[in-house]
Amino acid sequence: MFPRSSLLALALLLVACKKDKGDTEETDLPVETDTDTDSDSDADTDSDADTDSDADTDADADTDADADTDSDTDTDTALPNDTGTPDTGAPDTATDTGGDADTDTDSDTDSDTDADTDTDSDTDSDTDSDTDSDTDADTDSDTDSDTDADTDADTDADTDADTDADTDADTDTDTDPPVDADSDGFDSTVDCDDLDAAVYPGAPEICDGRANDCNDLSAPETHLVTIVGGGTYGTIQGAVDAAVPGDVLNICDGLYVENVTVGVNLQMRGIHGRDSTTLQPIAGAPGILMQSDAGLRVRGLEISGGTGAATGGGIHNPGTGELIVRESRVSGNAAANGGGIASQGILTVRESIVRGNSASVTGGGVLSGLAVVIEDSVVEANEAPLGGGVAGLGELLCTGTSSIQSNTADYGAGIAFSGLVDGCAVTQNVAALAGGGVLVSDASLLTGLNITQNAATNGTGGGLVVTESSSVTVVGTRIASNVAVDGGGVALADSASLSADDSVTVTLNTAESVGGGVLLGNASSWAGAVIEANDAVVLSGGFHGIAANTITGTLVTANTAPAGGGGSLVAGGSLESCTIESNTAALLGGGVNLSNGTFDLTGTTIVDNVAGGLASLGFGGGIAASVAVVTNGSVVSNDAQVGGGIAVLVDSTGTASGSAFSNILIDQNTTTVGGGGVWTEDALTLADSTISANTGVVGAGIAVDGALLELDNAIVSANVAALSGGGIHVNDGVALLSSTDVLENVAGLGGGIHLANDTSPSSAVLTSSAVLRNVANNAGGIFSQGSVTVAASDFGPDNSANDNIPQDVVQELDGSVLPDVAEYGNNATFACDRTTGCVP
User: Fold this and answer.
1) What pLDDT, on a 0 to 100 scale, did the predictor assign at position 400?
2) Rounded Cα–Cα distance for residues 693 and 665 (Å)
3) DSSP β-ladder status, 828-833 and 837-839
């Protein structure tokens, strides 16, 4: 067992560590010592800190629960023998000597005088720190098992009820006095925040989001502007005038009709946000004017209704200081330039709205002279002649969920800019004349833009316009679903250039006239990108070049138009290393339409395009050409009713002016009428080219209709016609072949060449040429209804006819058979006509 003195000390410690349950204040009242030693000699082991070593096992019936549970509620009624006074806050001095007489002499000598003076742990230190822990540790369970062998019934007659008469009710009714914790002169019964000396009834109200004067927060203070840590003012300008660099101005709810001039770096914030706090500029000046190089951060404000300013109807920053507009709304302002915001320094618009502003010259929503960052913000429904949404130079960066939308202008409805434009979503803007979405000038870089659903209602470039003599590089950008009269997606002005890669797509745009995808001005150039699935109502679904245009390294696919499905070049130009694929024209030029100029198709493949349809007769599945000189390129696997690969037409006036093609591969094209590879109604020179594996009804390789065909150093081979002229069909025209081979072609009539006679006899002149290994049902080599002149040419005898008529034959109109020209030998010179036959 522990020594009695140790238990007593422990009991005292436990009592001292507890608080009176009646206390409610955090501060302590004076300590009551209330020692209340209660000597109580009870023989019981009385857990009352008396260890009662009582060696006798004495089964004393007195389990002596020592009724004094001493709940000690501490009304402090005083023990019967306690000479102390009730708790007054002073220490109790009573020794509580009232002990049991019970000497308990038990025959076992068990002197058990209860040497435990029974201080009854109810030393009741009762320091009454007014926490009044005073649990009177003597719960006095005093089970005193005391098994005294003599069983000593010794009920301890006094059963030691020892309720410790001082039940010590001590309810500690002494209530704490009111406390003024923040020493502001108002105690907690009236002070709505007794921990803040600035908050008390009738305190001066400041704009900090609290009811400083203890009024109702549901009715916030209005028309107050407070410098955090400083004074409070009735106007924004008043607070600004008193501010020093770095100050933060809290602006309470309300409408502030004033113009504010800021001369130092500071912050302004509407404490309840832009829907509660509005600055309305007085007409004739900006809502906020920043001076010198001052910096400004605006947060949680609406700036609305400013008119008449020369620059910056809402905010004007003419210096190089940084302007940040956050969680704000700039709306309904007007100025000559920069209707909403004009900034010469760096401008950041974050989580804000710039809406419904206007400029009479430039920059309806925003005008920037250095750099602007638009972050998770919207610039919408602004207007100006130039740059309805944003105008400026330097850098325009859009991040997050930002959008430039529904703005209007004459030019550049969404954006009019020179420099870097990055990451912007530009949508549903409308320009009257040019650049529904974006207009860029000088040397500019566009990266990561999404330019969609914009329009140029009476002009060009529904999505994008590049101004005259400017150059732009475009990366990672989509230009889609825009509309214009010309250049539905993009328009390049004269001498402008655009360079892109295949991360750029011009798609689903529409031109009401020409250039569904792209319009190229005089001498402008285009490099790269994908021009896909655009449409033009009149001409040039993919691209339309006005004059001397160059398109390089571009995929043009799935575009549509009545003429020039893939596109058109007029008055010269080039398609270099391009693929013109799977485009459709209702009338002519499924792939491209080339007219009135010289064109270079070096490295370009025109493949799988279609001209015509169920409701129309189409000409030139791959190329429709008029008065064109075309060099290089491949025309492969295209289809049309007339001229599956190439159709050469007279000019728009009906004048026969002639065209020329050289170094062209014309292969595997098809037609349902005539000219599987080439059909011409105008004079055509075809040199250094191969016309092979094409199919059609007549003239599978080449069909000539009333025109002159000149073949020089060409190969016409392996073409198949269902009716006549497997290699060449000439109707009412002339074919001049020089150093040309007509080989392995197939037809029903005239496997190699068919000279037809519709209104006048056709003729052919072959010089240093060969007609070999051709096959037909009739006349494997040549079937003529006109005249043939052969000089130093080779006829086989390798041509064949399935009707056993001699192999190399010229057959007359009346069906008579002329002598086999093979008898004149290879390289012979002779002439054949319908009356005299073939004469050497």
Assistant:
1) 97
2) 11
3) antiparallel
